[in-house]
Design goal:
Blueprint (H helix, E strand, L loop, with lengths): L1 E7 L2 H11 L10 E2 L6 E9 L5 H13 L4 E11 L5 E9 L2 H18 L13 E11 L2 H7 L7 E3 L1 E8 L8 E9 L4
Antiparallel strand pairs: 1-3, 1-8, 2-6, 4-5, 4-7, 5-6, 8-9
Helix pairs in contact: 2-3
Length: about 190
């Protein structure tokens, strides 16, 4: 099964972000826009994980969550990866204690590795973001990236992490996500 570990966004944050990004969508029809219901902050993408590894993975993720405090987060800014001139992904940024967020993502990745589900991109630097849209082919989205630079959302406290299963959607729709389990972070 295809899995990732993420922090989910509370409804007021999703609503505020949708209110700011919905007006931008019509001008960019070539982008595959993610559904607001699917927005999340990925901590570790695990890829294909054998079902027999999931119990050990869940134990490791529970331990990892318990070692880290709840995080104060907010949506701030946006842009494109790898760059706005040849973008493949359009994203919203996250304002947070970046060191604490990276430590949490590192613990999640280490727990996954110990459980037998090493993240495929583990050697890459962690870049916290919310994926808003993807492009099949690289494209110049500099005007869109400029519009996203001013994104701002209400602050929230991320009190837990979630193990999420990703399944392909039907024609013309994005992937479907199923929340398999969640664990609380340590109270702030």
């Amino acid at each position: 099964m295809r899995l990732f570990v993420a922090i989910t966004l509370p409804p007021p944050v999703v609503t505020a972000l949708a209110r700011q990004t919905d007006p931008l969508r019509p001008a960019w029809p070539a982008l595959r826009w993610a559904s607001p219901a699917a927005w999340h902050l990925t901590l570790a993408f695990l890829g294909e994980v054998p079902e027999q590894v999931v119990p050990a993975l869940e134990q490791r993720l529970e331990r990892a969550a318990g070692r880290h405090p709840a995080l104060d987060l907010a949506v701030r800014g946006g842009g494109a990866f790898p760059g706005a001139a040849r973008a493949r992904v359009v994203w919203a940024g996250i304002q947070a204690d970046q060191a604490a967020l990276r430590k949490l993502a590192g613990s999640v990745a280490a727990g996954a590795r110990r459980a037998g589900a090493p993240p495929p991109g583990e050697g890459r630097r962690y870049r916290p973001h919310i994926t808003l849209a993807r492009l099949r082919d690289p494209a110049d989205v500099r005007p869109l990236a400029g519009a996203l630079a001013g994104l701002s959302g209400p602050p929230w406290t991320a009190a837990g992490i979630h193990l999420i299963r990703s399944s392909p959607g039907g024609p013309g729709e994005g992937p479907r996500y199923e929340d398999l389990a969640g664990w609380p972070l340590r109270p702030g």
